[in-house]
Amino acid sequence: MTWDAIFSFPMERKQMLREQASAMYCTSAYYVGRVLAETTLHIFFAFIACNIFYWLIGFQDEMGNFLTYVLVIELVTLIGAGFMTVFGAISINVEQSNSLASRPR
Length: 105
Description:
Helix content: over 70%
Number of helices: 4
Radius of gyration: 17 Å
Structural class: mainly alpha
Distance between the termini: 22 Å
Shape: elongated
Strand content: under 5%
Order of helices and strands: HHHH
Largest sheet: none
């Protein structure tokens, strides 16, 4: 789910610049709205995946361990989405953002 964040800025750059030029909204309003909308989806889908995989793998049947697992997966998902959003924001097109994110370190 976090890979979709890498494509959001390069694909919508022209539209955002056109709407910013016509003074519909500022860049910060666009960015904050986009991040808030995507964050709720990332949290929701990561929670669904945690519910499936935790019990499927057969981890311990304790609520504290499950909640710790969910918290770690949620944080890793949000950090990954943040990195992908940055890669998409600093790239000019989709190809450049994809090669920047998948480049081996």
